From TrEMBL:
Cellular compartment(s): Cytoplasm
The entry's keywords: Cytoplasm
A GO CC term attached to the entry: cytosol
Gene3D superfamilies, sorted: Nucleic acid-binding proteins
Name used for this protein in its record: Cold shock domain-containing protein
CDD domains (alphabetical): CSP_CDS
One of the Pfam families matching this protein, by short name: CSD
Gene Ontology molecular function: mRNA binding
PROSITE patterns: CSD_1, CSD_2
UniProt main location, coarse: cytoplasm
Span of domain CSD: 1-62
Length: 63
C-alpha cells in the first residue's frame, strides 16, 4: 500500500486526485476505488493500477 494526501475530490462528480508521498505524483481516484469516504487534505492509503489515461488509485482508505 502507498500513502498520500487528497489534493482534490469532487463528491458530486465522484473523482479527484491524490498526491503520492514518495513521488509527489498526482494519481487519479474515482469513487469506485474508495473503501471509505474521503475529502480534500485527508491522508489516505491506496493501491495503484494502470488505467486508460494513466495511474488510478484503488482500495483508497482514509488513515
Amino acid at each position: 500500500m502507498q500513502t498520500g494526501k487528497v489534493k482534490f475530490f469532487n463528491v458530486s462528480k465522484g473523482f479527484g486526485f491524490i498526491i503520492a508521498d514518495d513521488t509527489n505524483q498526482e494519481i487519479f481516484v474515482h469513487q469506485t476505488g474508495l473503501t471509505s469516504e474521503i475529502r480534500e487534505n485527508d491522508r489516505v492509503s491506496y493501491d495503484v493500477k494502470d488505467g486508460k489515461k494513466g495511474l488510478n488509485a484503488i482500495n483508497v482508505e482514509k488513515i
